Amino acid sequence: MAERVSQGPVTVLDLHFQTAGTVGAFLVRSPEGPVLVETGPESLFGTLESALNGQGFALEDIRHVFLTHIHLDHGGAAWRLARHGARIHVHPAGARHLADPGKLLGSARRIYGEDMERLWGRLEPVPPELISPLDDGQVVRFGAMGIEAIHTPGHAIHHITYRLEDGLFTGDVGGIRIGQGPVIPPFPPPDIDLEAWADSIARMRAAAPTYIYPTHFGIKADGAAHFDSLEENIRRISAWVRDRLATGGTVETLVPRFQAFMRELLAGQGLPEAAIEDYEIADPAFMSVYGLARYWRRVES
User: 154, 177, 296: which is closest to 238 by C-alpha?
Assistant: First the structure.
């Protein structure tokens, strides 16, 4: 089945993070001009600009950017759009890190080391006057079109799902789904909270979306089945890590075992090797071990 690239006013912009179909931004054609949901990393800002040009827009045409959260694969290029005059809409808990990204940058450097700039590029402050923190339930209107912010923690405390008409931009709390594969939850440190995640899924289900727009990746049209797969894999994957920590496993020893477990899980869904590699690009397995280990040690201490 061919991947849908547009639905109503929404068009997926493939940023080609290492390969096609792993990281996207979304162009929304509003009555008051083009709006962007997600920016991708700064390392791919040129790709984003080319994709916008291909849709008939210049960077300066983008006056509003909505970030589901501030992780670098989602909002790393926000400061570049702000340099061109865009207003950046974000969760209140993420706003301060856009204005002063030092802590975010330091955390990323500890994880990625020498690969930091190659993967994610540069990170500079967004002027505070161009940052708009969004409350839960707040609607930003563009003529007759409204984009509603739904606070959905679980993956990150500063996560927002955006509702536009009959669709949801689900960032990472709605899971990663490459092509027609299963929905895999990404579990990076430090904010994983499975109870909050369950509540967020209930809120997304209650919106009864016809379409789901996951940043990783595309446009999906099977909302109930999508969330069923997400919940099943949250339970399966989190329990795998919990059980092995309980028997004395360490983060370092669990990483290669977890990578093998994930490859087996995805292969069991009938995915070819290339698709399994795409999932690893979008959601590096080692990050989930670190995030879930931190979560289970907190709740079971």
Answer: 296
- Cα–Cα–Cα angle for 161, 162, 168, rounded to 5 degrees: 90
User: What is the pairing mode between strands 87-90 and 6-7?
Assistant: unpaired
pLDDT value, residue 1: 47
Domain residue ranges in the chain: 6-231
The label of the residue with tokens 């669709």 reads 167
The confidence score (pLDDT) of residue 2 equals 58
- pLDDT, tens only, 41-80: 999 999 999 999 999 999 999 999 999 999 999 999 999 9
Whether this model's pTM surpasses 0.90: yes
Amino acid at the residue 89: H
- Counting as low any pLDDT under 50, the low residues of the chain are 1
Taking CA atoms, 120 is separated from 8, 91, 212, 231, 270, in Å, by 31, 21, 25, 29, 31
Number of residues in the chain: 301
Q: What distance in Å separates the CA atoms of residue 89 and residue 181, rounded to the nearest whole number?
A: 30
Look at the domain 6-231 and name its fold.
Answer: Metallo-beta-lactamase; Chain A (3.60.15)
